[in-house]
Design a protein that fits this description.
Helices cover about 45% and strands about 15% of the residues. It is an alpha/beta fold. The strands form 2 sheets. Strands 7-6-5-8-9 form a 5-stranded parallel beta sheet. The chain has a 4-stranded parallel beta sheet with strand order 2-1-3-4, sandwiched between helices. Helix 6 runs parallel beside helix 7.
Length: about 350
């Protein structure tokens, strides 16, 4: 089917642009076949294990639905109910899962790792080192590759396949929820891989991983596009073609962990920027044909208003639907032919 068989997916940066393109094209084909009612059973009698250290709404349901659609099964496992929670080694768990199924997905971030940056990603890497079946990140504190693929697929559906030169604003917006960086950073990476001009807008103190931004700058240089950082939300939004409004934890918080930094201190820092929100006034600063995306959950009345998220420029439900097709494509491509 492709040379992606047996590959891990821990970040979109791990794959070439051609490989990402192939996966999205395959997802597009599955989407068309699904709407025609003739999806082939490309995961027939196969099993994906989904190991969740954290809760999930879309990730679990879309992987389960994708596996069912392709004739297989995605099994939900709450880490708290495993012997891993009592000290069983990652190596032993990984070696066991590879004997039982054809793919392992892991979700670990935020409270599961006390918001300490990189701890969740390193754990997934440890599973991958000890597992001979494909390992897929279902979100960690650094990356969320399957989400990023679905998001880019959606953006291209809405603004055209050639997104080079299109302005994409990834904007920190206020929320009283403390959220990790994974979705945001993989979004920066995949957008620059495909030549979008990316503006990362956030207040001072909410800087992301310098190394990840260096990768993104390299992506942009290769594609002849730009990566910019702005501390002025209104200025950043002017003429934008795509806007993603989302809160994330401060740099200092994830450097030391939430328990050490203090939840109240972090919440107070967020509250200083309550005016960083996407509302109707700011929507008018964007390009007339602009779209608003979100990985969900969106905290309405904080990150963005109901008027924006329910308005004609919002594509959040189409975006969520595309998770089904991207994850189905990955099941088929990474596991290979039955």
């Amino acid at each position: 089917m492709s040379d992606l068989q047996g590959r891990d997916l821990l970040s979109t940066q791990d794959w070439s642009r051609g490989e990402l393109e192939f996966a999205m094209g395959f997802a597009k084909d599955i989407k068309a076949k699904h709407r025609e009612g003739r999806v082939p059973e490309l995961f027939k009698n196969r099993t994906m294990f989904m190991l969740f250290y954290n809760t999930s709404t879309r990730t679990r349901s879309s992987f389960e639905a994708a596996a069912t659609m392709l004739g297989g099964h995605a099994q939900f496992i709450d880490f708290a109910t495993t012997r891993g929670a009592e000290g069983e080694s990652v190596k032993d768990m990984a070696r066991m899962y590879e004997r039982f199924g054809q793919m392992l997905g892991i979700r670990v971030l935020e409270a599961a790792v006390d918001y300490v940056y990189g701890r969740g990603h390193r754990l997934i890497q440890e599973y991958a080192r000890n597992c001979r079946i494909p390992v897929v990140s279902m979100a960690d504190d650094m990356f969320h590759p399957t989400q990023a693929l679905a998001d880019m697929m959606t953006i291209r559906e809405k603004v055209g396949d050639n997104v080079r030169g299109k302005r994409y604003v990834i904007a920190w917006t206020y929320s009283d929820h403390i959220r990790s960086w994974g979705s945001v950073q993989d979004e920066v990476l995949i957008a620059t891989r495909f030549g979008m001009d990316v503006t990362l807008a956030h207040p001072k103190g909410f800087e992301l991983d310098e190394k990840v931004l260096e990768w993104a700058e390299g992506n942009a240089a290769e594609m002849g596009s730009r990566l910019e950082v702005s501390h002025d939300l209104d200025e950043a939004l002017k003429g934008a073609h795509v806007v993603f409004p989302r809160s994330w934890a401060s740099h200092e918080c994830v450097s030391v962990g939430l328990n050490r930094f203090g939840r109240e201190k972090e919440s107070e820092l967020h509250a200083k920027f309550r005016d960083w929100t996407l509302d109707r006034r700011r929507l008018e600063l964007m390009d007339k044909g602009a779209i608003v995306t979100h990985v969900l959950p969106v905290f309405r009345g904080q990150e963005a208003s109901d008027e924006v998220m329910d308005g004609p420029q919002s594509v959040i439900y189409d975006q969520a639907e595309n998770l089904l097709y991207v994850r189905a494509a990955l099941l088929a491509l990474l596991a290979g032919r039955p």
